[in-house]
């Protein structure tokens, strides 16, 4: 999505940093409020949706609690829209660069969005949601697999950054943490590894075939599939990421900086 942002080299990292700071403060405050109004832990554990008894206990009213749940659903919808936007852009970028069929790289002239990639993301999400009709465990596996995949991407990016720092290949940036970059990168890497271990743990006890978390085996299969396709086709036929796009983003940032 950096390709759609002015001064992306400066604006995107700044937006990421301050959004994390603000959301951390708000999340911590929300956690304190939930703990204060939780009430009996047994009621929350036995409820099909643990947030319901908390809001009812906080408001003392079923109607008011239902209204708060409605507000929470609005937040969920907003997060969903953000995820679809980022996923559709990622799908479009991969299609534009030849890693996916070029048909999904089309940008609608009227709406100026990658409509085909957008619908592909929506259809896949809707199909995955149907798993919840058959088994709640299946959808939990999908969520764990998606989150585990995100943390793997963080791990790879941080490792590349640390390697670039160690070999003096890290270029100067308009938004930099300076000397704090080293400890922050190392702390981020350690946290990513630590949280990634728990993402593949089973959610229920006792552990059996029905309650096993299959995120790790599926992730291994995805990795093997990616490796086979790389050596069998992509290594010789995929031209790589579009370097012209990166050069255009950097040129736009440098031009705005001079202006």
Brief account:
With 259 residues, the chain is mainly alpha-helical. The chain has helices at 8-36, 41-46, 51-59, 62-96, 115-129, 131-134, 136-166, 181-199, 215-237, 243-258.
SSE layout and pairings?
Layout: H1 8-36, H2 41-46, H3 51-59, H4 62-96, H5 115-129, H6 131-134, H7 136-166, H8 181-199, H9 215-237, H10 243-258
Helix pairs in contact: 3-4, 4-5, 7-8, 7-9
Write structural notes for this entry.
The chain is mainly alpha-helical. The protein folds into two domains: 37-129, no CATH class; 133-259, no CATH class. The protein has ten helices and no strands. It has helices at 8-36, 41-46, 51-59, 62-96, 115-129, 131-134, 136-166, 181-199, 215-237, 243-258. The longest helix is centred in the first third of the chain and has 35 residues, at 62-96. The protein is globular and about 60 Å long. The mean pLDDT is 83.
